[in-house]
Amino acid sequence: MSGSCKLFLSSGLFLISFKMIISASTGFTVSIYDVTSRTVSLRWPKFPDAFSYRVMATPVNTLGHSLLAHFSDVTLVGTLSSLAPNTIYSVMVDAIDKNGIILAEAQIMQLTAPEIPMIDQAYSKLSSSITVEWAAVSGASSYLLTAQDGEMFIETIVTNSPGTVTGLKAATLYKITIRSINTGGRSQSSPSKKAKTVLAAPVMIANSPSYNNIVVNWNAVYMAVGFSVSIMRSDGLGSMLKENTTNNSLAFSSLDPGTLYTIKVYAWDINGIPGDDFTYNQRTRPLAPGDVQVVFDSGSLGAIVSCMPAEGASSYSIAAYSNTSKWNFTSTSTSCTVSSLECGAEYSLTVVASNEAGSSVPTEAVIFKTAPCAPESITIEEKEPGNLAVSWSDVDLSDYYVAFVKSDDGLEVHCNTSCTQCLFQSDCGFTYFISVFAYNKAGQSPLGDIFNYTTAPCCPSNFSPVFVSSNTVQIIWSPVRGAEMYETKAVAQTSELLCNDTATTCTFSALQCNTQYNITVYSFSEIRGSNMSCEPKQVTTAPCSPEILNISKDTLSIISVHWHASSDGAMYTVTVKGEAGRWHCTSSGNSCSIHNLPCGSLFFINVVATTEAGYSLPSYSVPLETDPCCPADLSVTQVTQSVANISWSSGTGAKTYIAILESHKRQASCHTPQTSCLLGCITCGTDYTVTVKAVSETGLGSDCIYKRFSSSACCPSGVKLYRLGNNSIRIYWRSSKESINYSTDLYGSKRNFTCISTGALTYCDITEIPCGDVYMVAVSPLIDRNRSKLAFCPKKMYSGKNLKGTATVKKMRQHIWGNKNVHIYINHVRLILKTCQ
Ligand SMILES: *[C@@H]1O[C@H](CO)[C@@H](O)[C@H](O)[C@H]1NC(C)=O
Ligand SMILES: *[C@@H]1O[C@H](CO)[C@@H](O)[C@H](O)[C@H]1NC(C)=O
Ligand SMILES: *[C@@H]1O[C@H](CO)[C@@H](O)[C@H](O)[C@H]1NC(C)=O
Ligand SMILES: *[C@@H]1O[C@H](CO)[C@@H](O)[C@H](O)[C@H]1NC(C)=O
Ligand SMILES: *[C@@H]1O[C@H](CO)[C@@H](O)[C@H](O)[C@H]1NC(C)=O
Ligand SMILES: *[C@@H]1O[C@H](CO)[C@@H](O)[C@H](O)[C@H]1NC(C)=O
Ligand SMILES: *[C@@H]1O[C@H](CO)[C@@H](O)[C@H](O)[C@H]1NC(C)=O
Ligand SMILES: *[C@@H]1O[C@H](CO)[C@@H](O)[C@H](O)[C@H]1NC(C)=O
Ligand SMILES: *[C@@H]1O[C@H](CO)[C@@H](O)[C@H](O)[C@H]1NC(C)=O
Ligand SMILES: *[C@@H]1O[C@H](CO)[C@@H](O)[C@H](O)[C@H]1NC(C)=O
Ligand SMILES: *[C@@H]1O[C@H](CO)[C@@H](O)[C@H](O)[C@H]1NC(C)=O
Ligand SMILES: *[C@@H]1O[C@H](CO)[C@@H](O)[C@H](O)[C@H]1NC(C)=O
């Protein structure tokens, strides 16, 4: 079929090109303006001088006779009829003049339309269409179906039977015709058939007023006399319900809840012919969900609401309301979390299941109470130190309260009460954070304000005042909780000292002596002020420094120190201190004595008062000098008959000495820094008293030693020498006193001679004196029971020449140091004291 169609098209192309060549040669053309199964209508232009036109159609490729027609010169169109359908004709038009001569010629190829088809039947299955059946005609490539309703045509081209005309009105009578079509053109219309479209479908809406009902409504349908409605579950379960009605609505009951139903409705006409269907899917509403539960989320104002799922429900709506608030929530889940409920409220809660059909009836209301609101008006009082009273206002719907008290070191305590007050123990220096919660069965109230309370700072206690000097006390303590500053007070009866510092130490100086101070360290915090209950510590300052009034030397070896005693109950210690050592005496009175201080020393004396509180400052020192020490020994030697040498050992502390030689008649003395001195004017054979006084640098003197001293016997006077004969001499003298023994000594360079005379003898003889020598002769009294002799009696020179007794006078002069007044002259007869006192 498609192959022949292709061939046909190519031969058509060939014909067109052929026609163009003809036209080009003469400028005369022919065109076709209508073709049917048996006719071809042509048009050509007027050709000059043409008298008539001749048209001839000859079938191409098939046997058959040609058709010929003539047209006058005014006729420029012509129709050839009685042609064979579906046949290619070669159509030739000749322009002929009056002489019968062909002036011009044009040719065209044309296929005739196929045979007219015949309608077998026409009927309507749908309200908008009519279906037509016919027998196929040869050469037809398609068919044109026409439905006519009064003035209105509706055409449809179809390729084969049966064909359907659509876009028709429902319940309407139509006249139906058909034409066949090929490339050449269209056949004439077939004889018509009448057909009526069926009734239109009713337009239906349905709804489910409750979980087991569906109500359907539809509109009226033109020409309808009744309606048929059917319903069945869309999932095919169960049976179908069918009902006929003339009404425009219908209600189905006893349906399954939440189930999708498929509903069909159609109308029928007076002949009972059913019209178009209308299908509608409708779901029934769900049942109310069961078993609604509310579980509180403790601690927050939230709850979890859950229920059993309802068949066919697509969402669940939870609505809750209290006296003052409303709340709702929709979810696809059967459980949902409700948050931000009002505290302390009674709620009524219902759940509704919904689907596209609508909502179920609400469940029975669940009444519940939310957790109580946070307690308000919280007050914190520290009625007495160590006890915090926390109180709050009563809260609706609460069963009991728990108050939490957390100290800033993290420790937390709580109290559980149904009253509105709790007592807590508190410590000094802490900050407590306090929160109160109310509870009921629904749980805990939300967190309200957190209050804080700072207790008074603690008191520093582990301190002890330490005297760093007798009038300065230092206090060091450990820092205590809560203290921002310390105020340290030292209070005495008449005065007060104060230290304000953040440091944990304070020093009070210039304290009064012998005074009791109450020292208190108060801690201070800005929020609570000072902790005034801090305990004082008592300190007593050291006694006042005593004052030495006088020092008396009671006897030689005892001194007494007197002071001004100003501190009650003090013990006084006197210290005597010097290079010689230290001495002490103590007394609770105002004087004490020291015995046996060494002589000749310088001391400093002070007094210190002592009490339990300590030592006073020492008094100012008073110097004390003891009398110089006496020389330990004293000796007196006679240097000459009238001069004695007094010598002594040195005494400690003595700077000078006064030596005194005293007889009942006279006295001689010397004052010397030395430890000896010469004293003249002694008379021989006299008893003396010798005294030495030691004198210190400051003039302090001590009477020391008394010694008795007797001067020696006098040297003889009138010594004379007489030659007795052969180398012997007699020596004479005058005795100063009777019954004294004398020793006569002769000193020579070769030999010495001694002669002792006893009794009343006043001469002595010495024999066998070698001559030619010079001798010194001395006559001295024997002393100390004749055991020694005086050494200082004058000596006489003797030589052989002057043996007759003429003595050579020798003059000796002696200057004695220390006593310019004493000059001693010695000649051969006597000693002359030039000056004597
Ligand atoms: C409803 O009407 C149609 C057409 O008249 C008929 O065929 C059918 O049996 C009827 N059904 C019922 C349930 O009446
Ligand atoms: C049609 O249905 C409506 C509502 O269901 C009802 O009120 C009415 O009476 C019915 N009419 C007939 C003719 O059944
Ligand atoms: C809330 O309602 C309850 C009972 O209906 C009532 O007793 C209560 O006073 C109401 N509360 C408020 C704040 O209105
Ligand atoms: C849910 O709440 C919204 C506003 O919060 C309100 O418009 C709506 O009507 C409520 N729905 C129900 C079922 O209460
Ligand atoms: C407080 O007491 C109630 C009952 O007396 C008890 O149920 C609750 O657990 C207690 N709460 C605390 C925090 O101790
Ligand atoms: C304590 O409470 C006061 C006032 O309520 C607030 O200003 C202060 O910051 C709080 N202190 C602490 C440590 O939270
Ligand atoms: C002051 O401190 C003491 C001891 O540290 C403490 O016991 C007392 O509670 C404090 N005083 C006050 C008013 O808190
Ligand atoms: C010191 O404290 C004691 C006891 O605390 C008190 O008896 C005494 O009067 C106080 N002395 C002074 C000077 O305040
Ligand atoms: C010490 O501090 C206290 C508390 O701040 C104050 O009252 C007092 O005046 C201060 N004293 C001195 C001497 O600064
Ligand atoms: C020393 O002082 C005391 C007390 O004042 C007095 O009794 C005594 O007489 C005084 N002694 C002398 C030597 O002044
Ligand atoms: C006196 O005697 C002392 C001690 O024997 C002696 O050292 C001193 O020189 C003597 N003085 C004179 C002037 O002889
Ligand atoms: C004589 O005596 C003197 C003094 O005692 C002495 O110095 C001297 O040596 C003596 N001469 C002789 C010869 O013994």
From TrEMBL:
Residues 1-24 form the signal peptide. PROSITE patterns: FN3 (PS50853). SUPFAM superfamilies: Fibronectin type III. Keywords: Signal. Residues 113-200, 288-373, 374-458, 542-629, 630-714 form the Fibronectin type-III domain. The keyword Signal applies. It comes from the Eukaryota. This is Fibronectin type III domain-containing protein 7. It comes from Python bivittatus. The gene is FNDC7.
